[in-house]
Design brief:
The chain has 338 residues and is of the alpha/beta class. The protein has two domains: 8-140, Response regulator (Rossmann fold, 3-Layer(aba) Sandwich), CATH 3.40.50.2300; 151-335, Alpha-Beta Plaits (2-Layer Sandwich), CATH 3.30.70. 40% of the residues lie in helices and 23% in strands. It has helices at residues 40-47, 63-70, 93-100, 112-141, 151-163, 178-185, 187-207, 232-246, 253-258, 295-309, 322-325, and strands spanning 8-12, 30-34, 51-55, 81-86, 104-108, 168-176, 214-219, 222-228, 260-264, 270-274, 277-285, 316-320, 330-335. The strands form three sheets. Strands 7-8-6-11-12-13 form a six-stranded mixed sheet, sandwiched between helices. A five-stranded parallel sheet has the order 2-1-3-4-5. A two-stranded antiparallel sheet has the order 9-10. Helix 6 crosses helix 7 and helix 7 runs antiparallel to helix 8. It is elongated, with a radius of gyration of 29 Å.
C-alpha cells in the first residue's frame, strides 16, 4: 500500500520513564507520545498509527493486557505492536510474543539504530499486508469476463468521488444492436470478444488522459467510466471513433459493405440491423450533486439518458441537463459515425 503521509508511530510509555527512542532518531516518522494507557484507543482512532510501542509495565494496566485488548478488535488487531521493558522489570517476552500477538519485545536500553531499522521493517510488512488484502478485495469484485472492477467497486469509487467533490463526470456505455449480432453470428463466435473489445477501447482512451480516470464493467455489454469534466469531450470523441473503426473487424466483408445484417428482432421478425454502435450516456457532473448523494441516484440518471441515446442509429454521447434546467431535456453534445 502506497501512502504519501509519514508513517505514524504511537508510543505509550509510563510517565517519567526512560523512553525507548528519542524523537530526533525518528525524523522519517510522525510520533505521537502518550503516558496514559486509557487513551490508547482514542489515539489510535484519531491518528491511525502504522505501529504501536507499548511499555510492558504501566500504571493502571499492564502492556500485556492492553496488547491483548488491541488484538481482540478487528480495527486494531493488524496494527503491529512492539512491547518494551526495563531490564530489571519482571517481564514475560514469550507470553507477549506467543499469546499476546506482539511483533517484537525489546529490553531497554535499546540501540536506536537497531530499533529504527526494526520499526522501518515492521511498518513495511504491515503496509504489504494491507496492500495484499486490498488487492484480494479488488480481485473478488472484478468482472470475470473483462477483469474490470464490478458493481461494488464502481459504487464505492463514485460515492468516494461525490464525497470528495471531485470534478468528475460519470458516463454509461452500452452496445447497440448487440443481441441481433449474437443471433446471427452466435455469442461464442464474437459476442464475448466484442464485450472485451468495448472494455479495451475505453481503457486505451482513458490511459491517454493525464487526469484521474476510472473504468468499471457493470455486466453484459454495460460499462461505466469516470473522467475529469475537462476531458469529457476528448474522451468520448476518441472512444466513439476507435470503437466504430474496430467493430468492423467482427463482421463479414459482405455485411460491412451493406452496412447492416439480416437478423430477427425480439418478436422473432426478420429485420435489417445496422452495424453495431456504442451509446455513451449520462455525463452526470458529480460536482452538481451533494456529497451525500447516493450512487444509485446518479446511476438512474445515466440509465434514463441511455434509453434515449439508444433510439439513434449512430455511436454518440448524450448528456443529461435536467439537474441544471429542472426539466426533462437531453443534449446531444457530440457524436460521430464512420
Amino acid at each position: 500500500m502506497t501512502t504519501s503521509r509519514k508513517p505514524t508511530i504511537l508510543i505509550t510509555e509510563k510517565a517519567n520513564s526512560r523512553s525507548c527512542i528519542s524523537d530526533h532518531t525518528l525524523d522519517d516518522f510522525r510520533i505521537v507520545r502518550n503516558d496514559d494507557p486509557r487513551e490508547v484507543f482514542s489515539l489510535v482512532s484519531l491518528n491511525r498509527p502504522d505501529l504501536i510501542i507499548l511499555d510492558a509495565e504501566m500504571e493502571g494496566i499492564s502492556g500485556y493486557e492492553l496488547l491483548k485488548t488491541l488484538k481482540s478488535f478487528y480495527k486494531t488487531e493488524r496494527i503491529p505492536v512492539v512491547l518494551v521493558a526495563e531490564i530489571h522489570e519482571d517481564v514475560e517476552p514469550c507470553l507477549a510474543l506467543e499469546l499476546g500477538g506482539a511483533i517484537d519485545f525489546m529490553i531497554k536500553p535499546i540501540s536506536e539504530h537497531l530499533i529504527t531499522a526494526k520499526i522501518t521493517n515492521y511498518i513495511k510488512i504491515y503496509h504489504s499486508l494491507l496492500d495484499l488484502e486490498e488487492r484480494a478485495t479488488v480481485a473478488k469484485e472484478m468482472n470475470p469476463n473483462t477483469g474490470l472492477p464490478g458493481n461494488t467497486a464502481i459504487s464505492r469509487y463514485v460515492s468516494s468521488s461525490l464525497r470528495q467533490k471531485k470534478e468528475h463526470v460519470l458516463v454509461y456505455a452500452d452496445l447497440d444492436n448487440f443481441k441481433s449480432y449474437n443471433d446471427k453470428y452466435g455469442f461464442g463466435k464474437g459476442g464475448d470478444e466484442i464485450i472485451k473489445l468495448t472494455g479495451d477501447v475505453i481503457s486505451k482512451v482513458l490511459a491517454k488522459l493525464k487526469s484521474e480516470t476510472f473504468l468499471g464493467h457493470i455486466g453484459g455489454d454495460d460499462f461505466v467510466f469516470v473522467v475529469h469534466r475537462n476531458d469529457i469531450k476528448r474522451a468520448t470523441d476518441m472512444i466513439i471513433a476507435l470503437f466504430d473503426k474496430r467493430i468492423l473487424d467482427f463482421y463479414t466483408e459482405d455485411d460491412r459493405k451493406r452496412g447492416y445484417i439480416i437478423s430477427k428482432d425480439r418478436r422473432d421478425q426478420v429485420q435489417k440491423f445496422p452495424i453495431m454502435t456504442l451509446s455513451l450516456a449520462g455525463g452526470v457532473d458529480l460536482t452538481e450533486h451533494t456529497p451525500s448523494t447516493r450512487y444509485e441516484y446518479v446511476a438512474d440518471l445515466c440509465a434514463e439518458v441511455k434509453k434515449y441515446a439508444k433510439t439513434f442509429n449512430n455511436s454518440c454521447y448524450y448528456q443529461d441537463r435536467r439537474h441544471k434546467q429542472q426539466s426533462k431535456t437531453y443534449e446531444m453534445l457530440y457524436s460521430s459515425a464512420i
